[in-house]
Amino acid sequence: MNRRWQIVIAVILLVDALALALWLQWRRENRFDSRIKFAAEKYGIDPALVKAVVWRESKFKPEVRGKAGEIGLMQIRDLAANEWAQAEKIPDFHHENIIDAQTNTLAGAWYLARLLKRYQGTDNPVPFALADYNAGRTRVLKWLTGAGKTNQVKFMEQMDYPGTKNYIVAITNRAPRYRRDFPVAMR
Prior knowledge:
Number of domains: 2
Strand content: under 5%
Number of strands: 0
Helix content: 55-70%
Shape: globular
Mean pLDDT: 92
Order of helices and strands: HHHHHHHHH
Low-confidence stretches: none
CATH class of the largest domain: Mainly Alpha
Distance between the termini: 58 Å
CATH topology of the largest domain: Lysozyme
CATH architecture of the largest domain: Orthogonal Bundle
Radius of gyration: 20 Å
Number of helices: 9
């Protein structure tokens, strides 16, 4: 086999490998779309935002567990999971039930919807809700001073947790990418 054919075969193999890698990434990022859409619509929030949270929290790995007891796609902690189960009147609920992808996205979307409602009086509830989801209510209350009570820019300026700022920016930048996955979903 001459050198030219070796190069052609190498290029074909490289293109095939790249195509396979892209397909596997697409499949991983889209395999939970029906569950995400169902949960987001049930609780009246943007499915692209929910999917961006799933991306940031777990990179679409339903079995992932966090250091502070978070479980699953949306990294739901025990308290949030139990509040959701109580609100939905689910008997005999245990935090471990949240490992199920559908249960996890339902609980996570419910919790995120609750946080978005909490900050409706702001110019954009999303950064406030995401900060609460990531850092917790106690820390958010510390950042809700002066103009930061209602203005997202001032709120972000007052935030002394770079990780939470990065979390908010990453999710708000990623969500538009996922809007094409939910073309007729409510926004």
